[in-house]
């Protein structure tokens, strides 16, 4: 029989080791925000309830002491029924866990940070050649809990983390109320009438949007090949890595997320998408925000459809230009990639001319 308690403890220990090695990747403000929500998860505190400040402070000190102790520890293999398995061999682990109603993932995120989680399996489906696992309750997780992740041909959607991610965004908006796109998104769910039911509806809707993005990531990967992953690994922990990831995000969304949301006329998710179109994605693609505002003013989907159509060619051409730079320069490609990706760069040389079918 599977010893679930032992398995949970091992996965959680690996999460602590990962956090110990990578907690310094965040700015202090982001770190403290994430730690607050991590405390909320560990103590099962409802979203709307205030956190006890003194308890959070003491817990924070204890967690940092634990990380100091674990920072140099190796990741542990996971104990399953008849053997132990490497924590990054998610496929082998899930072959044993899925029939028992659990799902696990172990992979790498930004700055090569390992992410692990173990949860209850809510749903399994196949779409466009990809296996999609949707989990509910999470038994083990690390500080930064990605709501969605693509590993090979498998997509993991963590609904508990989706819900927490949405709540964090809602709280951020409530503090400032400056993000008009976020206000429009929340208005679609009537949060003023019933917060809990509105959050559940939003979670279901954004779960689908996250699946669409991960499918776009997979499609982008098929178009770009293995050289892309080698380039990304060589750029780890650099500004160029952040920029390259943003290029692929923009490509994935132009290939999958935005076309599907537009086809479904999913206004709520479109508003939420642009409410969170920030950071490097926005820096590289400011035209998207300008087009969104015109779409709001004119209520004309053709504006966004044109943006998506042009974006597919632009970001695919840009991504291939980045691979070419990496092929020529190898590990020294970082500065050249940064120069190419500055918004002042003319990308027309990277993109094929429009064809009649796109006009």
User: What structural class do helix, strand and pairing data support?
Assistant: alpha+beta
When the domains are counted, the total is 2
Helical residues, percent? 55-70%
Estimate what percentage of residues fall within beta strands. 5-15%
What is the number of beta strands?
Answer: 7
Quote the average pLDDT: 92
Largest sheet: 5 strands, mixed
Strand order of the largest sheet: 3-4-5-7-6
Note poorly predicted spans.
344-359
Q: Compute the gyration radius: what is it?
A: 21 Å
Give the CA-CA distance, first to last residue: 61 Å
- The arrangement of helices and strands along the chain is HHHEEHEEEEEHHHHHHHHHH
- The coarse overall form would be globular
Q: Give the count of helical stretches.
A: 14
Structure description:
This protein has 359 residues and is an alpha+beta fold. Helices cover 60% and strands 13% of the residues. It folds into 2 domains: 4-164, no CATH class; 179-358, no CATH class. The protein has helices at residues 4-22, 28-42, 53-70, 90-97, 159-176, 180-187, 195-224, 226-234, 239-263, 267-275, 279-284, 286-298, 301-329, 334-341; strands at residues 78-79, 84-85, 102-108, 114-127, 130-141, 148-151, 154-158. A hairpin with a 5-residue loop joins strand 3 and strand 4 (114-127). The model is unreliable at 344-359 (pLDDT under 50).
């Amino acid at each position: 029989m599977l010893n679930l308690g032992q398995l949970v403890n091992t996965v959680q220990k690996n999460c602590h080791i990962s956090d110990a090695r990578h907690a310094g990747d965040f700015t202090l403000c982001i770190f403290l925000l994430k730690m607050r929500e991590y405390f909320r998860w560990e103590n099962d505190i409802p979203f709307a309830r205030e956190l006890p400040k003194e308890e959070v402070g003491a817990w924070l000190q204890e967690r940092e002491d634990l990380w100091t102790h674990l920072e140099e520890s190796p990741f542990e293999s996971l104990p399953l029924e008849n053997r132990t398995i490497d924590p990054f061999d998610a496929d082998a682990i899930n072959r044993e866990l899925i029939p028992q109603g659990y799902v696990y993932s172990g992979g790498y995120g930004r700055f090569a940070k390992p992410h692990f989680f173990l949860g209850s399996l809510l749903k399994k489906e196949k779409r466009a050649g990809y296996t999609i696992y949707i989990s509910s309750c999470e038994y083990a997780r690390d500080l930064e809990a990605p709501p969605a992740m693509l590993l090979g041909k498998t997509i993991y959607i963590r609904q508990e983390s989706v819900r927490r991610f949405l709540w964090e965004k809602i709280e951020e908006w409530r503090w400032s109320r400056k993000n008009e796109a976020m206000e429009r998104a929340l208005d679609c769910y009537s949060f003023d009438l019933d917060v809990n039911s509105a959050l559940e509806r939003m979670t279901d809707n954004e779960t689908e949007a996250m699946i669409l993005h991960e499918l776009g990531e997979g499609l982008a990967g098929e178009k770009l090949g293995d050289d892309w992953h080698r380039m990304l690994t060589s750029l780890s922990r650099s500004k160029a890595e952040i920029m390259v990831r943003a290029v692929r995000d923009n490509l994935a969304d132009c290939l999958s997320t935005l076309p599907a949301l537009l086809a479904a006329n999913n206004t709520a998710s479109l508003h939420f998408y642009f409410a969170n179109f920030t950071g490097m994605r926005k820096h590289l693609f400011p035209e998207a925000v300008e087009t969104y505002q015109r779409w709001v003013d004119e209520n004309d989907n053709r504006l966004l459809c044109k943006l998506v159509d042009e974006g597919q060619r632009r970001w695919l051409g840009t991504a291939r230009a980045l691979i070419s730079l990496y092929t020529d320069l190898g590990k020294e490609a970082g500065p050249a990639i940064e120069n190419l990706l500055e918004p002042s760069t003319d990308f027309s040389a990277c993109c094929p001319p429009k064809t009649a079918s796109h006009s």
